[in-house]
Design brief:
The protein is of the alpha+beta class. It has one domain. Helices cover 24% and strands 18% of the residues. The chain has three helices and four strands. It has a four-stranded mixed sheet, with no helix packed on it. A hairpin with a 5-residue loop joins strand 2 and strand 3. The longest helix is centred in the first third of the chain and has 10 residues. It is flat. It starts with a strand and ends in a 32-residue tail after the last helix.
Length: 124
Amino acid sequence: MSKPRVIKDYDQLSDEVKEQIKLVYPKGFTDHLVTYVNKEGENKKALPFETENYYYLIRMSIVQAEKIVEDDDDFDEFGELRSSVAEDYKEKYEDESHMSYNANDDNDFEDIPDDSSDDDDDDY
């Protein structure tokens, strides 16, 4: 059974998913962004991430990726996940060994609706 593929904004993700992303990308997100084409034919950037239930593309620009890490106290002044935070998250998600990123070229991502009325969602 294949996993649903979804595109979401970082701020629309649950705290648990954000914590898991930090474990997969402990040195920040910028170097891991991929480019995809949205339904309007525009090139967009996103961070690939896989959980047990979904393949995510998490929409963010390079500037946004840098700002997210800069503003997050879980990261140090060098943009790296603090070791104490990493240990806490590893312990919390020790059964989540399937977490990874997958820069897949498939074009079957879709947005999962959330409670906000954000009309900027991109279909892949």
